[in-house]
Automatic annotation (TrEMBL):
SUPFAM superfamilies recorded: FAD/NAD(P)-binding domain (SSF51905)
Record keywords, A-Z: Monooxygenase, Oxidoreductase
EC number(s) stated in the UniProt entry for this protein: 1.14.14.11
UniProt source species: Devosia equisanguinis
Protein name: Styrene monooxygenase StyA
Keyword Magnesium: no
Gene Ontology terms, MF aspect: monooxygenase activity
Source species taxonomy: Bacteria, Pseudomonadati, Pseudomonadota, Alphaproteobacteria, Hyphomicrobiales
Pfam families per record: Smoa_sbd
InterPro entries (alphabetical): FAD/NAD-bd_sf (IPR036188), StyA_sbd (IPR041654)
Signal peptide boundaries: none
Domain Styrene monooxygenase StyA putative substrate binding: 144-251
Aminoacyl-tRNA synthetase as UniProt keyword: no
Enzyme kind, highest EC tier: oxidoreductase
Length: 408
């Protein structure tokens, strides 16, 4: 029986590990946190996952949260100077969902062990990778933003930013007034300030709302370094809403934190890395998920990507049969994922820059045209559908003209 070693028990590592067990592989996952440490720790993400990624979980029978609050659509608002200048929404064809990773990962770790997987608790370093390689046929690093992932070489050609593009913060709350229509991600663009989005989720204490702040570094939404307590974090969240997104403030002003660890602040540069790591002993390891393809959360794609990466790697491993897992296999396996991920990375990196005129046109047309609104909203489920339309003003014009013609 082939033995696969995985470093990291997140969306990528656990989904792959559970998938491999189902297919008769022997799997070791090493995590630097116990299930209890994850459950009792800080939130890590807002982890909104769209239908295609959720389907990967359904296919493995690990979709344990069918009753979690659905995210049924996406609303876009342009809010310059605190005034709503544009607003529209559309439904997702199938709902999205966000399960707090403190709820999901401990459950998946338990399921992994129940299914015969070996869960080890250790912080793996280079020597640990070599030791794992000695006992496994294939070693995969799915360590997210963990230090060990930085051993993989940064891919300059695929990483246009060398600095963080946003100051990030999360605030998990109870007590927000629901949207009047269907549930949704409310995505607010505040030119020159940043972005704010919010949506329903499931956390340790039940249904909640997650506020996500994407502040332009050095701007008025980048004050988290001065926040000294959970209550100050909530107060800062509400200050931002009151000043820059008053419509959201109106339904949020009575919110309370879900828990003192339901907050997060930080920043990182989006980075793509070369997927094959040469170990000192001459062996190789394969990177997956955020460790080799880290995106800014502005488009809410990281967990989706991690899930698609795990699905692509599972297929590649199954198809590879008994052949050796050499560097060529590893590169081809990553390339298979990159066939998809390149579009997510391209779109996400574009969203971090001031929007070009043709993108503004798309968002403006969506306000009057449901076909365009539906296309843009459902593209979050599969960002490949934006391409090549969003790359070329002439293609955008042709797409919008056709949509407007159909509406007329
Ligand atoms: C503010 C914010 C908001 C986000 N919102 C969304 C969203 O709405 N939708 C979405 O799709 N994505 C979102 N993301 C991104 C998403 O959370 C990540 O892309 C996703 O969790 C990546 O999964 P992963 O398995 O690659 O890594 P991770 O989830 O980071 O898991 C890696 C695991 O490896 C462990 N580990 C690290 N180093 C070691 C080591 N040396 N040895 C052993 N274990 C180790 C870590 O402790 C961790 O448990 C957001 C991220 C942030 C920061």
């Amino acid at each position: 029986m082939r033995k696969i070693g995985i470093v990291g028990a997140g969306q990528a590592g656990l989904q792959l590990g559970l998938g491999l067990l189902k297919n008769g592989y022997q799997v070791v996952i090493t995590s630097n946190q116990t299930p209890d440490q994850i459950r009792n720790g800080r939130v890590t993400s807002s982890q909104c996952m769209f239908d295609r990624a959720l389907e990967n979980e359904r296919a493995l029978g690990i979709d344990f949260w069918k009753d979690a609050p659905p995210v049924e659509g996406i609303q876009f608002s342009l809010v310059p100077g605190g005034q709503t200048a544009m607003q529209w929404s559309s439904r997702l064809d199938r709902p999205a969902q966000s399960i707090d990773q403190r709820v999901k990962m401990p459950r998946w770790m338990t399921e992994f062990e129940k299914a015969g997987g070996e869960l080890r608790i250790a912080d793996v370093d280079m020597a640990g990778l070599e030791a794992l390689e000695q006992e496994c046929d294939l070693v995969i690093v799915a360590s997210g933003k963990g230090e060990i992932g930085k051993l993989f070489q940064r891919d300059e050609t695929r990483s246009p930013f060398d600095k963080p593009q946003r100051s990030l913060a999360l605030t998990y709350v109870h007590g927000m007034e629901p949207r009047k229509e269907h549930s949704a991600v409310n995505f607010n663009l505040m030119p020159g300030v940043g972005e704010y989005f919010v949506f329903p989720a499931l956390t340790l204490s039940g249904p909640c709302e997650i506020m996500v702040f994407e502040g332009i570094p050095g701007g008025p939404m980048d004050n988290w370094a001065n926040v000294k307590s959970p209550q100050e974090h909530l107060a800062e969240s509400l200050r931002i809403l009151k000043e820059f997104v008053p419509e959201e403030y109106a339904r949020s002003k009575d919110c309370v934190l879900t828990d003192d660890l339901g907050i997060l602040a930080g920043r990182f540069p989006p980075t793509v890395r070369k997927p094959v790591l040469a170990l000192p002993n001459g062996a190789v390891a394969l990177g997956m998920g955020d460790s080799v393809c880290l995106n800014d959360p502005i488009t809410g794609q990281g967990s989706n990507n991690a899930s698609h990466c795990a699905a692509a790697y599972l297929t590649a491993i199954l198809e590879h049969g008994d052949r050796p897992y050499d560097a060529a296999f590893m590169q081809a396996t990553f390339d298979r994922y990159w066939d998809y991920a390149q579009f997510v990375v391209g779109w996400t990196n574009n969203m971090l820059l001031p929007p070009p005129e043709h993108m503004v046109k798309i968002l403006g047309t969506a306000q009057q045209n449901q076909k365009v609104a539906h296309w843009f909203v459902n593209g979050f489920n599969d960002p490949r559908t934006y391409f090549p339309t969003i790359t070329d003003p002439a293609l955008t014009d042709a797409f919008l003209a056709e949509a407007m013609g159909a509406a007329a």
